[in-house]
Amino acid sequence: MKILYVIDHLGGGGAENQFVETVSRVNRETHEIICFLTEGVGIRHDDLSGRGVKIIKCVKPRQGRDTLRAVRQLRQLVRSFRPDMLHSYLMYSAFVSNLALLGMGRWPVFLATEFSSPERILDEVRFRFLKKAMLKWSYGHLDRLVTTSTGVKEEMVSLGYLAAERISVIHEGVDLERCSPAPKEALRRELGLPEEKKVVSVVSSLVERKGHRYLLEALSGVLGVYDDVVLYVLGDGPER
């Protein structure tokens, strides 16, 4: 089977990291795969390409999004590669994929994976109502939408994005061997963490919808009672 994966970029966010781990585990003996990047490269690019995955990025004269170029180049790739399935990740790439497939005589099976509710992301962008209408149109052409939680599926259905029977919930997998913690004392020494403090950490993209403000509000209350607590925030984004 030929599979064409489409994603915005290969940055360090949770969706991108899950994408890299999922795609790199596809059986290359039975499947031929290509990954197309609609927006940029990102820090996980070399990781995925180093695992033998062919990556093609949208060629454009400037940084950021260039939807028309991305649609045109993806359309050319679909015609030359002739995939059996196109699997997009995240809303923008689903929209680009939909435009690229318009009017084509032979459609591949079209899947999309979403990790968050569109409403939370749309709250942070301009022209919210126009982009919501574009997303509803885009999702309406999918053969199947995959969400990573029941909550996201229920919100998609209740807000009229897609009927429940066209959405599947597949929870993210965790490689337990990679997540086995080292002894606390050794980690504190390696990372230079204070031994006399209780350490709280959060790893996340620093965007408003992640709700870091609630953590900071709660921490201020904790520090009013305990003075041996320290918070480490790992991530990047507009809320930095």
Descriptive overview:
38% of the residues lie in helices and 19% in strands. The chain has helices at 14-24, 45-49, 67-81, 91-101, 118-122, 128-139, 150-158, 176-179, 184-191, 212-223, and strands spanning 2-7, 32-37, 54-57, 85-89, 109-114, 144-147, 167-169, 198-203, 229-234. Helix 2 links the parallel strand 2 (32-37) and strand 3. Helix 3 crosses helix 4. The strands form 2 sheets. Strands 3-2-1-4-5-6-7 form a 7-stranded parallel sheet, sandwiched between helices. Strands 8-9 form a two-stranded parallel sheet. The chain is an alpha/beta fold and 240 residues long. The protein has 2 domains: 2-169, Glycogen Phosphorylase B (Rossmann fold); 181-234, no CATH class. It contains 10 helices and 9 strands.
Structure in a nutshell:
The chain contains 10 helices and 9 strands. It is of the alpha/beta class. The chain has a 7-stranded parallel β-sheet with strand order 3-2-1-4-5-6-7, with helices on both faces. A two-stranded parallel ribbon has the order 8-9.
Tell me, rounded to a whole number, the average pLDDT.
86
The helix/strand order is EHEHEHEHEHHEHEHHEHE
> In which range does the helix fraction lie?
25-40%
What would CATH call the homologous superfamily of the largest domain?
A: Glycogen Phosphorylase B
Strand order of the largest sheet: 3-2-1-4-5-6-7
Beta-strand content estimate = 15-25%
* Uncertain segments: none
**Count of alpha/pi helices:** 10
The radius of gyration computed from the alpha-carbon positions, rounded to a whole number of angstroms, is: 20 Å
CATH architecture label name of the largest domain: 3-Layer(aba) Sandwich
Class based on secondary structure composition and strand pairing:
alpha/beta
Largest sheet: 7 strands, parallel
Write down the domain tally.
2
Q: Report the end-to-end length measured between terminal Cα atoms.
A: 42 Å
Domain Glycosyltransferase subfamily 4-like N-terminal: 13-178
InterPro entries: Glyco_trans_4-like_N, Glycosyltransferase_grp1
Pfam family, one: Glyco_transf_4
GO molecular function: hexosyltransferase activity
